Amino acid sequence: MRHAPALARLGRIASAATESRALRAAALDELGRSVPFDACVWLLTDPETSVGVAPLASVPPALMPELPRLIRLKYLTPVNRWTTLSRAARLDTPAASLVWRELLHAHGVTDVASVVFRDRYGCWAFLDLWRLGGTFADDELAFLDDVAALLTPHLRRCVAGCFETEGTGGTLEPGPVMLLLDAGLRVVGQTPRTVDYLARLLPDTDTEPVPAAAYNVAAQLVAVENGVDEQPPLARTHLAGGRWLTLRAARLGPTFDQIAVTLEDSSLPDRSTMFARACGLAARESELLRHLTTGADTRTIAARMFLSENTVQDHLKSIFDKTGTRSRRALLSRAAGTG
């Protein structure tokens, strides 16, 4: 198998990684040796809504001012959309892709290889590799499928690890944090603390942070309005420490030509949903966790779930094993972020 050594190296990279951004950066360096590319965009996604957050990108400098437009077109393009892909794909008919036809071809992009990182617990990331000259070959796409199968559980593990981090993520004050975007997703206004939050979301930038997560949520709203997708314009993302944010987008104003994107601390249901998916809980285990977050005891949970108390205890032991906790208190502390 021609790519077996590369897959072995990627496996070692993934196994050693504890943080998703570092994993993706190292994986891209290795990936480029087997599948050469000229630019890339690799986003984590909310596993339930598939809306992008936490981007890692290397694109031509000339495209940076057009980032809001690029994201908007990406979400409006049904061709090879990550939400519908079952395996890696190229642009077999580039002109059929709205994002290629309206933007990428003008910057010399001749092909895009798209791959999704998905398992039975949700969609965890998607990756686009751009090639300036030539197209991606079948064996390269097959290799990308192998890479996705290899890396997906490690990306999910890194998300689960975000719940293990101590602390609350700094001293950022709670309160309304909002970006106001125009029809082209360009920022036209924001509340005072927004920049501080964005800086935490993109800690490695030396310039004013780009609100890419907000662009993605707003673009999802536009996609829903245009019948491209049905998932809500919502995404949950790790901020810092044990703190998670929920981003939502909605139309604002008398003419509804502006989009408001709000950032707020994730609610307990939002956190517990992410926690359950990231830790690989089965459906009944996730349901049990939801009951635990309400303060219900074993007898009450058994009655609600139509189970015996012994079966509830068996499910609870399985949850402890999957989440690396040893008690209900530790489990709820991690899921709720109260530790």
* Helix count from the secondary structure assignment: 12
Class by helix and strand content?
Answer: alpha+beta
The dominant shape is: globular
CATH topology annotation of the largest domain:
Beta-Lactamase
N/C terminus separation? 47 Å
Name the CATH superfamily classification of the largest domain: Transcription factor LuxR-like, autoinducer-binding domain
Helix content: 40-55%
Order of helices and strands: HHEEHHEEHEEHHEEEHHHHH
Beta-strand level of the residues, as a percent range? 15-25%
Reading off the top of the CATH hierarchy, the class of the largest domain is best stated as Alpha Beta
- What is the CATH architecture annotation of the largest domain? 2-Layer Sandwich
Structure description:
This protein has 12 helices and 9 strands. The mean pLDDT is 91. It is 42% helix and 20% strand. The termini are far apart. The longest helix has 24 residues, at 138-161. The chain has helices at 4-16, 20-34, 67-76, 98-102, 138-161, 194-201, 212-225, 268-278, 283-293, 298-305, 309-323, 328-336, and strands at 39-45, 52-58, 111-119, 122-131, 177-181, 187-190, 234-240, 243-252, 258-265.
